[in-house]
From TrEMBL, chain A:
<keyword id="KW-0456">Lyase</keyword>
<dbReference type="GO" id="GO:0016829">
    <property type="term" value="F:lyase activity"/>
</dbReference>
<dbReference type="InterPro" id="IPR013114">
    <property type="entry name" value="FabA_FabZ"/>
</dbReference>
<dbReference type="Pfam" id="PF07977">
    <property type="entry name" value="FabA"/>
</dbReference>
<dbReference type="InterPro" id="IPR029069">
    <property type="entry name" value="HotDog_dom_sf"/>
</dbReference>
<protein>
    <submittedName>
        <fullName>3-hydroxyacyl-ACP dehydratase FabZ family protein</fullName>
        <ecNumber>4.2.1.-</ecNumber>
    </submittedName>
</protein>
Length: 152, 97
């Protein structure tokens, strides 16, 4: 996990039909912690949402075989139950609850060491890739994190 | 004379009012979803999600948009409220069929 580069997912643990499980470890140090908060480093809630959104995005890409790119559209019912600090292990799961026309809805959940941290309902708009560079970069990342079918 | 409302129209109008800043009493059967009610694409997808859930269907917005863009159907056919309600009734009937 590299917070300042928005690389939120370290590894895909499983991708099974309409569900995905991924894992990450919060870095020990990051410029993000210099501001959030001085002397009391915590992963910002928006980055926990981003982590759940990215897990949902990989679920959609794995499911649609990179036919379309998911973009975060709406976050509903987001809850942050506990703090996450440096070096914490994160387990993220997401399940598709609805596939609409041009959008997909997931229920995502984030835990650390078995403890509930955050959850949200996430809507992602699915669109054609805007350019080949983005698709290539996403495929390369898929290989790096071990998305089934795309592992390096 | 105002066009008649239907149960589907009323439910869709309620959904629009709940998922946008449009006042419920400003929504009529002749309202165009974007041109008259001013609903943007983000709100519209939220509304479509709520309609999908409420009616147990998948509103084919992308197909409708393609047909309108290709000139195969006028936008009013899908995006004027009374017609949208009719299209939803058709989708519900097709699913039940």
């Amino acid at each position: 996990m590299r917070l300042e580069y928005f690389q939120m997912i370290d590894r895909v643990v499983s991708l099974d039909g309409d569900a995905i499980v991924v894992e990450s470890r919060v870095p020990e140090a990051s410029p993000v912690f210099e501001g959030h908060f001085p002397g009391h480093p915590l992963v910002p809630g928006v980055l926990l949402v981003e982590t759940m959104a990215q897990a949902s995005g990989w679920l959609i890409l794995g499911r649609n075989n990179f036919a379309r790119m998911p973009f975060l559209m709406t976050v509903k019912e987001a809850k942050f139950r506990s703090f996450v600090g440096p070096d914490a292990p994160l387990d993220v799961s997401a399940r598709i609850s609805h596939e609409g026309s041009g959008y997909t809805v997931t229920e995502a959940r984030l835990t650390s060491g078995g403890k509930r941290i955050a959850e949200a309902e996430i809507l992602l708009r699915t669109m054609d890739f805007p350019n080949p560079e983005l698709e290539a970069a996403m495929r390369a990342t898929a290989a790096r994190i071990g998305l089934p079918g795309y592992a390096a | 004379m105002a066009a008649e409302t239907t149960p589907t129209f009323d439910r869709v109008a309620d959904i629009i009012a709940e998922n946008s800043e449009v006042a419920r009493d400003s929504i009529t059967p002749d309202s165009h979803v974007t041109e008259d009610l001013g609903i943007d694409s983000l709100d519209f997808l939220d509304i479509v999600f709520a309609i999908d859930k409420a009616f147990g269907i998948k509103v084919p917005v992308e197909k409708w948009t393609q047909e309108v863009n290709a000139g195969e159907k006028p936008a009013d056919h899908y995006f004027v409220m009374k017609n949208l309600a009719t299209r939803i009734d058709e989708l519900v009937a097709a699913k039940a069929g």
